[in-house]
């Protein structure tokens, strides 16, 4: 009887010892912790790292304590949103085998944003749970629509066609969103900065509502890690290894959509986090999703926290929203990926 051996997801790249990967993950966590301390320290009123640490022990003046306390929910929200968007991008890239997949580039964030604005303007939705729900539905509809458009013509859903379809549909979504908002001054004022993408309005109530939803989405993505490794071998090989290709794609895509929709509902459409971080993580640890996903979550959180800190520092006493900073980082990386990989499949 012939035994079919499942190929290792690391077969195409030099294998890295598990100890070195674990050490890298710990180092990434230390970097994230350091960035979180910087996020608590820097702002309109800077606080020394010593005072930040003293606040944790309750041994600092009231002014410093107030400044640090106000920044804690903002930092926590940046960690959650960064990890969610990065995981969503990693899952999209694995499911579509598309190196250009990203919630922003493929129009998924734009669909979620449009759904939120329509819900506010026409249906009077105001509760956070309602907005998160419509955002997830909008993200799912946008994902299906972009994939359908990108699949038209010869060759099916190639990476380049999906990227072009996503860019065109994202522009259309943004135009419709602006058209809905412009005549409605009350909604426009409330969501003027939300459209750009940011974490400045973080509160513990918002975090408490969105965190469980993001946790469910992340759990779905992590549970499909092994299946996504099989998809990287090609549909025929994956099916031959006993993988239910359609089910794996559906479940992983559901997790990606939940993460993207919930993150967009709370922080607005933030692009390029889901593009940059998964590529960096695959360079660090290889293509094994069981390692890529934890690294992606940690480094995605680190990137968004860093972008938030940079946005606060370079325009003091004003702020630049993280959506602008991540776009400045991600656009050159997007161009590099297109030129370097010639948009081949993963």
Describe the structure.
- The chain has 346 residues and is mainly alpha-helical.
- The chain has helices spanning 18-41, 49-56, 62-96, 108-123, 128-150, 159-181, 185-190, 204-223, 225-231, 235-240, 245-267, 273-285, 289-313, 322-341.
- The protein is globular.
- Residues 1-14 have low confidence and may be disordered.
Helicity, as a percent range: over 70%
**Could you tell me the strand content as a percent range?**
under 5%
Radius of gyration: 20 Å
Q: What characteristic shape results from the CA principal axes? A: globular
Helix/strand order, N-terminal first: HHHHHHHHHHHHHH
Specify the number of helices.
Answer: 14
Mean pLDDT: 86
- How far apart are the first and last residues' alpha carbons, in Å? 33 Å
CATH topological fold name: ABC transporter involved in vitamin B12 uptake, BtuC
Supply the number of structural domains.
1
The beta-strand count equals 0
Structural class, from secondary structure content?
Answer: mainly alpha
In the CATH classification, which architecture applies? Orthogonal Bundle
Q: Provide the CATH superfamily.
A: ABC transporter involved in vitamin B12 uptake, BtuC
Low-confidence runs of at least 5 consecutive residues: 1-14
Major sheet description: none
CATH C-level: Mainly Alpha
């Amino acid at each position: 009887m012939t035994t079919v051996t499942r190929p290792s997801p690391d077969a195409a790249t030099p294998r890295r010892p598990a100890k070195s990967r674990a050490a890298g993950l710990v180092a990434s966590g230390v970097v994230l912790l350091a960035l979180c301390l910087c996020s608590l320290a820097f702002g309109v009123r800077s606080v020394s790292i010593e005072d930040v640490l003293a606040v944790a022990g309750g041994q600092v003046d009231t002014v410093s304590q107030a400044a640090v306390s106000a920044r804690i929910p903002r930092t926590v929200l940046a960690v959650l949103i960064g990890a969610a968007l990065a995981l969503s991008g990693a899952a999209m890239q694995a499911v579509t085998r598309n190196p250009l997949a990203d919630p922003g580039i493929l129009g998924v964030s734009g669909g979620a944003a449009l759904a939120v604005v329509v819900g506010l303007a026409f249906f009077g939705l105001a509760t956070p749970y309602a907005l998160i729900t419509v955002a997830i539905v909008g993200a799912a509809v946008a994902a299906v629509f972009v994939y359908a458009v990108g699949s038209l013509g010869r060759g099916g859903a190639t990476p380049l066609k999906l990227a072009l379809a996503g860019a065109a549909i994202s522009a259309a979504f943004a135009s419709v969103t602006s058209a809905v908002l412009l005549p409605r001054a009350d909604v426009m004022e409330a969501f003027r900065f939300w459209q750009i993408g940011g974490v400045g309005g973080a509160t513990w109530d918002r975090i408490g509502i969105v965190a469980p939803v993001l946790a469910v989405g992340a759990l779905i993505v992590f549970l499909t890690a092994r299946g996504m490794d099989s998809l990287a071998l090609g549909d025929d090989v994956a099916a031959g290894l006993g993988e239910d290709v359609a089910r794996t794609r559906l479940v992983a895509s559901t997790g990606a959509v939940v993460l993207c929709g919930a993150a967009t509902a709370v922080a607005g459409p933030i692009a390029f986090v889901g593009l940059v971080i998964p590529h960096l993580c695959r360079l660090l640890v290889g293509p094994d999703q069981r390692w890529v996903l934890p690294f992606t979550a940690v480094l995605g959180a680190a990137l968004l926290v860093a972008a938030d800190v940079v946005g606060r520092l370079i325009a003091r006493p004003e702020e630049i929203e993280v959506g602008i900073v991540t776009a400045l980082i991600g656009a050159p990386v997007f161009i590099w990926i297109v030129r370097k990989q010639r948009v081949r499949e993963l």
